[in-house]
TrEMBL record:
It comes from Russula earlei. This is Hydroxymethylbilane synthase. The lineage of its organism: Eukaryota, Fungi, Dikarya, Basidiomycota, Agaricomycotina.
Length: 316
């Protein structure tokens, strides 16, 4: 195998970690490869909230262009950042086994004080200080948090994981929300972090996706050896749910599919931007039902989701 596979990656520590993982796994199958570093628009603009700059494809389109112009052979992405509709000429080559799908809160101060805030109900917010502030750039996390804690404030937080952790330390925020997988993969999950078990993740959160040019048979065959069928199935269902509801990832849509004994346990929801309204579904189906995500989305649309979708569309 004389051909060297060129792996395109963003320059952040997490992106490079993911690309290096793919490089190591390809090597285990006898394929030589090299990393090619490419800066994305999402890495350049670290001020504007993602939901204002149109997050769909913001971290992937530069790598897409590199693929289509033959500067790289494959690209590695956090799958939750990849648009549900891939660019013409680009195909999914593999999905690696999923890490944690959970969101975590990296908090500041005493855990007891944080727990007092988080245990308060919507109808009975804690007495005293009403300025409890959480930071996130995710419209999904923002909506879910405000639905549960409408008395809290949300600030914007951008940058790679290293930058965001530093901003939390330097700010007067009470905490910030991160994907557990991102911090854990590069050994940066701090001790002052708690899992948000009630928060449903972004579709495909925790999964790594490899894409390539649709005409590149060599790259497709090499990457197919790395594919995890169960993760790929669950991610497909979750992304089908997203696409059927609204089509973009700059929306407060969440989904999670898990397989146990050939049964898929699916949860999905959509919130209004302000978190006040919610439509959700929870169902079980067989792994053979590959369209389960689409069916779940149609159920949500018929049970309150359609009005939320229309409100979001009219607001753009």
């Amino acid at each position: 195998m004389d051909k060297i596979i060129r792996i395109g990656t963003r320059e952040s520590q997490l992106a490079v970690w993911q690309a290096t993982l793919v490089q190591q796994q390809l090597s285990q199958h006898g394929f030589a490869s090299e990393l090619v570093y490419i800066k994305s628009d999402g890495d350049i603009d670290l001020v504007t909230p993602l939901y204002e700059i149109g997050v769909q494809g913001v971290f992937t389109k530069t790598l897409d262009a590199a693929l289509l112009s033959n500067r790289i052979d494959i690209a590695v992405h956090s799958m939750k950042d990849v648009p549900t509709q891939l660019a013409k000429g680009i195909v999914q080559a593999a999905v690696l086994p999923r890490a944690s799908y959970k969101d975590i809160l990296v908090y500041k101060g005493e855990l007891s004080a944080i727990n007092d805030q988080l245990s308060a109900s919507n109808d009975h917010p804690p007495l005293g200080d009403r300025s409890f502030t959480i930071a996130t750039s995710s419209i999904r996390r923002r909506a879910q948090w405000l639905h549960r804690y409408p008395h809290h404030h949300i600030d914007n937080l951008r940058g790679n994981v290293n930058t965001r952790l530093r901003k939390v330390e330097e700010s007067n925020w009470n905490g910030a929300i991160f994907a557990a997988a991102g911090l854990e993969r590069i050994g940066l999950r701090p001790a002052n972090a708690i899992e948000l078990d009630w928060m449903l993740p972004a579709p495909a959160q925790g999964a790594i996706m490899i894409v390539c040019n649709e005409s590149d048979v060599f790259a497709k065959e090499a990457c197919a050896l790395l594919n995890d069928a169960t993760t790929a199935l669950c991610a497909k269902m979750e992304r089908d749910f997203l696409r059927t509801l609204l089509g973009g990832c700059s929306t407060p849509i969440s989904a999670l599919a898990e397989v146990k004994d050939n049964i898929v346990y699916f949860k999905g929801n959509i919130y209004s931007i302000d978190g006040r309204e919610k439509a959700e579904t929870e169902k079980q189906t067989h792994t053979a039902d590959i369209d389960a995500g689409t069916h779940a989305a149609l159920e949500v649309l018929e049970n309150g989701g359609r009005s939320i979708v229309e409100t979001i569309r009219n607001a753009k």
